[in-house]
Amino acid sequence: MNIEIKLLSGALGAEIKGIDLTDVSDENFKKVNDLLLEHKVIFFRDQPITKDQQVALAEKFGPLETHAYVKGLEGYPEIVRIVKGKEEKNQWGENWHSDVSYNVKPTKAVILRSLKIPPVGGDTCFSNMELAWETLDPKIQDKIKNKKAIHSSLGAEFFIDNYKYMEGNEKRNYDSYSNEHPIVRTHPETGKKILYVNWTYTKQIIGMDKQESDQILKEIFEHQARLDLTCRFSWTENTVAIWDNRSVIHYAIADFFPGRGLGYERIMDRIAIEGDHPQ
Question: Which member of 67, 97, 185, 246 is catalytic?
Fold first, then answer.
């Protein structure tokens, strides 16, 4: 079958037809991974894969993570079911972030499968952090290029308190923790430079006073959210998304209002693949 590629924007993102995600052969995985490296986030509609098939696909990318704070599914601890109830107006993943950037080895990639989708609302936006670095003001580039920043996990409450159907992981410490990472990291597969900070978890630039750090981070976060660096995806059920968590940040839009998206469930199954130490 021929592979069809529909670009989602000029910055990143592609919808792919002609690939069967249940085929985890090395040959098929190479096609998927090459597309991922090129487009940063890729979407496959009408792929009603099972939990076992989602796990098998994820394992081709590397070791699987279990979330520090959120309980996985029974029998599938690496699958986090993200549930927005019918009555809920907010959803997991609001605001710009890179998944678990606060870990020593942050997530390499995420595979997200849609089970239930509202008729409207709940799109996800992605922003290309390679382009964000390339287009950043050179004066800011010079100030940050050899610096590191502190990323905070924010604690368990951030992930479960405002989400009625997200269950905490009893076996883990609920306290917050932090790690330091380079502000500009190098992609281990492509060699590209990546602007590796995000609005949700990055708290301070090391070696700068708080006031200067806050001002520079504010300018960077505004730059990262520029619409010309982004794409936006409208979900349908049985869609599988794969994103390179090293190269993008993303934002789950919670536009659930009366008479529109409110009153409908949104259910997704998420698997994350463990990454490396950012360099």
Answer: 97
Residue 80 lies inside a defined structural domain of this protein: yes
Q: What is the pLDDT of residue 154?
A: 80
> Residue 163's domain spans which residues?
4-274
Q: What is the pLDDT of residues 182-198, one digit of tens each?
A: 999 999 999 999 999 99
Residue ranges of the chain with pLDDT lower than 50? Answer: none
Q: Identify whether 99 is a catalytic site residue.
A: yes
* Residue 279, domain member (yes or no): no
Helices (H), 60-202: 129-134, 138-144, 156-160
Domain count across the chain = 1
Give the C-alpha separation, 112 to 110, whole Å: 6
CA nearest to 275, candidates 70, 102, 129: 102
The reported pLDDT for the residue numbered 261 is 82
DSSP for residue 228: G
- Beta strands in 123-257, from DSSP E residues, in sequence order: 124-128, 148-152, 178-182, 184-186, 193-195, 202-205, 230-233, 240-244, 248-252
Q: What is the pLDDT of residue 2?
A: 92
- Residue 34: give its domain's CATH number: 3.60.130.10
The question of whether 67 is a catalytic residue gets the answer no
Residue for token digits 């989708």?
117
- The pLDDT, as a whole number, for residue 164 is 66
pLDDT at residue 162, as a whole number: 66
State the catalytic residue, choosing from 39, 246, 250, 266: 250
- pTM here is 0.95
Q: Tell me how far apart the alpha carbons of residues 98 and 113 are, in angstroms, rounded to a whole number.
A: 18
Catalytic residue among 39, 99, 187, 266: 99
CA max distance for the chain: 57
**pLDDT score for 42:** 98
For the question of residue 250 being annotated catalytic, the response is yes
